[in-house]
Amino acid sequence: MRQQILEFLPEAVYYDRNVYDANGNKVGQELAFDLDPENITCPIHGTLADKMKRHQGLSFCELEFDMVKNEAMGLFDYLKESYSELNVVYSGRGFHIHVFDQKAYLLSAEEAA
Prior knowledge:
Layout: H1 2-8, E1 18-20, E2 26-29, E3 31-35, H2 48-53, H3 62-80, E4 86-90, E5 95-99, H4 102-105, H5 109-112
Antiparallel strand pairs: 1-2, 3-5, 4-5
């Protein structure tokens, strides 16, 4: 996979969070959270919709980044109360929090919400 990524230099790389059994049947899904600064309502710049109206796209300021970083740390602390196998990844914009505990793979959509 590394060679293909280096050869084609895609803008982004994604993976399937589903968990499959030996027969290829979906038996669960990795629990993951994606926290990005453009989804924070900034007290200076407003909402994402406000920024889009001003043609600022998905830009974000340092305050929004700090706010989403604090949200990610709070979510991590909250998840740590129920799960032990957590991983936080900086995505280049925000943060992804992945839960690798087996019990999280079996959550229904309603339970994970």
